[in-house]
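Escalated from tier 1: iron/sulfur cluster holo job.
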Amino acid sequence: MIISEQKPREEILEMLKGKEKVFIVGCAACATKCQTGGEDEVKEMKRELKKEGKKITGTIVLDTPCDERIVKKDLSSLSSLKNSNSLLIMACGVGLQTIGKLIDRPLIPALNPLFAGTTERIGRYYEYCSLCGDCLLDEFEGLCPLTRCAKGLLNGPCGGARDGKCEVNPAPARRSGVNDEIDCVWALIYEKTKEPLKTYYEPRDYKKILMPGRRVVR
Amino acid sequence: MSRFSERLKSKKFIITCEIFPPKGTDLTNLLKKAKALKGIVDGVNVTDSQRAIMRISPLAVCHILKEKGLEPIFQLTCRDRNRVALQSDLLGASALGIENILILSGDHPTIGDHPEAKPVYDLDPVQLLKTARTLEKGEDLAGRRLKGTPKFCLGAVANPSFEPLELQVLMMEKKVRAGAEFFQTQPIFDLRTFKDFQKKVSKLEAKVIISIFLLKSLKMAQLMDEIGLKIPKEYLKRLEKAEDPLKEGMNIAVDLIKEIKNECDGVHLMALGKEEYIPEILKRANL
Ligand code: SF4
Ligand code: SF4
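Tier 2 regenerated the structure:
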């Protein structure tokens, strides 16, 4: 899922300056799982913004704010939106922009989306896939070197790992202030198979994931 | 064929060292150091924004060194350039007569002085070695013909202290298959590590040049030990007791070279800004 964290309150308040009537939108999918934009977090946000003197015109937690059909069905027709001079979006950037396609109001992002990752437990997330457009996991015993090696090295490790840990300081761990070193994924791969060290992997085709990505099949 | 390449092909012992391009355009100091090395070493590595600290282009410095009669080894990392820029720089190097290229992944930007930079790593070192060999065949990565074909002498890096060592050796074999003719290693301090490593790489079809690091202080040695480079206790003690730790560091370097020189293809001296001592170290080690 999309791992996210909440922006600092001060930053959110700064963006909401001059916008007194706020409608809050949460996400029942990823942001709920991460506890950054679910029912509880929306309630908490409402309470705090009220304390700051904001008028909360309404709140809703959409099933999937990243789906235009859901936004159309559950959000666009709400009359309370008319009384709002901004929407605070507690979902990822895809959710915010999907809402933006349908609703002509200033949209304020309350979250910082981080990566596509796995949840070990709340507060511990690890990026496992960088959506490369050509999955190679069968070659590496289900461990993605493109994403889980800090340099995305496909043909084997650099010489920097120590005790199975990556030479690069773990950025996500640093962000959260938790000292939790990242494994060198090549140490993990090597434990399972030596084959990738004997195979040559061609350079990746980045044309497959050119920004902006799109897929139109029908 | 470059002078360095000829040396690699001969049975002779190889001596290289490295110098760091400065942050800025003033090369006075660098050139002074380079002058002292002329005729004493077989190749001078010019690092590519080493430790991810932004510095003047190694290609420019290689060119200037070459003009002064030195034999440069252009270090090319995968960190900052995509495949277009890498191929472009390889062609540029060749046109300037710089054939010796050391290919490495490059320290990650987060450990350097521009941690906000976007890391590139479009190609990995194995792919880059192959790419250079492809260019030599008169073709680029896209399969398009080149007008004028480059020629390279390609090297890669290895870490003898790596655990498990076998993984590192598999990597070296892969790099040889991709086109590496020589390796320059991470520094070695511990003879056991050296012997284990040497045993494993002796059959490799590439020259393996072992790095010797000039320790300048006890603190530096402890730091190296911490990052996994295994410094023997005896050396730590010697540095601690020494009145002039730099001098003791030189003694250690000389001892190490004497110990290993008959069992390896060559040595690479890392003097970290004290390149002026390299001639003396080599002389005392009878090289
Ligand atoms: S190879 Fe890695 S980045 Fe690509 S799709 Fe598979 S898991 Fe994701
Ligand atoms: S230590 Fe391992 S994970 Fe980290 S950059 Fe090197 S090969 Fe990749």
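Residues 172-176 of chain A have pLDDT under 50 and may be disordered.
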